[in-house]
Amino acid sequence: MSDFETSEKAQTTPMLEPRGCKVALLSGGSSGEREVSLASGKGAQQALEAAGFLVTMLDPSCKDDLKALIDGDFDIAFLCLHGKGGEDGAMQGFLEVIGLPYTGSGIWSSALSIDKAKAKVFYQSAGIKTPESMTIGNPAQASLRTVVEDLGLPCVVKPVCEGSALGVYIVETEDELQKALNDLSSISSNALVERFVSGRELTVAVLGNEKPEALPVIEIIPQNEFYDYESKYSPGGSQHLCPAPIGEQATKDVQQMAIAAHVALGCSGVSRSDFILDEAGELWILETNTIPGMTKTSLLPDAGRAAQIGFSDLCVRLIAYALAGRK
């Protein structure tokens, strides 16, 4: 095993000697976000190798790669897995069993954060505003009248446990609502229907363990109706304004809310929470991601650059947080 040096003196500036550090970089997987995960993995691989790490790329959907993960003399696993099987606590549990440290949040926090309905309970307990919603166990058989009476139209329909805006619909009529629920039933057994909040789309990344700190706020201006899958990952699909031009007070407020969400959900190392700033100046949290993307169009690297943290340095920090948090 390599000899690591970490510093807990400053959560945002951990010290780590990359030379000789053997990293198992996990990307791919079998979720609907597989292609995005592979792209994240390539980006992180380049950054880690540039920093001096010894990187081995492994795909958890391949049994031989899982065996290599168990048998290999790795110092740490760097997770670039998105969605089910990678961001939901499953892989984290596997790594706990084999005794290999890993970047990002632990089992409980990962499972909680990916479940949008359960995460809302913790947001509310922490005093973080989140749009009113209801969970529907069988989307195809939902009572449209109940949904409309409780949440109104337009509203947002999304799977409870998916990321990258997969299966997200903004609906304006009962017919559109029924179609969205029918479509969603093919990819998820549970749907979250949420009151639609119109406003500016913001996202805030948070770094650290015991003393997390927020990176600069990003305002997202999507080319489509909202920040959907295409907007996230297609070149030119969205414009990122960082720092977001929302004023000093709104910036402080949304950063504090992102830190509060990070703490409330028990996140470690890194998280990225998405918000809406409505026309009245109120902030609403939508969801928290425990493994933010690492592609060329991803938000976390953009926020890091705005804070003068290069991509390689960002990856080094994630490893250092992981090692410091598991001592």
Overall body shape: globular
H/E element order? EHEHEHHHEHEEHEEEEHEHEEHH
Number of domains: 3
Amino- and carboxy-terminal Cα gap: 15 Å
Radius of gyration: 19 Å
> What is the CATH level 1 assignment of the largest domain?
Alpha Beta
The total count of helices amounts to: 11
* Main beta sheet: 6 strands, antiparallel
Fraction in beta strands: 15-25%
Please identify the structural class as seen in this structure.
alpha+beta
Low-confidence segments, ≥5 residues, pLDDT <50? 1-13
What is the CATH superfamily classification of the largest domain?
ATP-grasp fold, B domain
Mean of residue pLDDT?
A: 89
CATH architectural arrangement of the largest domain: 2-Layer Sandwich
Describe the overall structure.
By secondary structure, the chain is of the alpha+beta class. It folds into 3 domains: 22-103, Rossmann fold; 112-129 and 197-325, 2-Layer Sandwich (D-amino Acid Aminotransferase, Chain A, domain 1); 133-195, Dna Ligase, domain 1. Helices cover 36% and strands 22% of the residues. The chain has 11 helices and 13 strands. The chain has helices spanning 34-51, 63-71, 90-98, 107-114, 116-125, 144-151, 174-184, 229-233, 248-264, 299-306, 311-325; strands at 22-27, 54-58, 76-80, 133-136, 155-159, 169-171, 191-195, 199-208, 213-214, 218-222, 238-241, 269-278, 283-289. The strands form 3 sheets. Strands 8, 9, 10, 11, 12 and 13 form a 6-stranded antiparallel beta sheet that branches. A 4-stranded antiparallel beta sheet has the order 4-7-5-6, covered by helices on one side. The longest helix has 18 residues, at 34-51. Mean pLDDT is 89; it is low at 1-13.
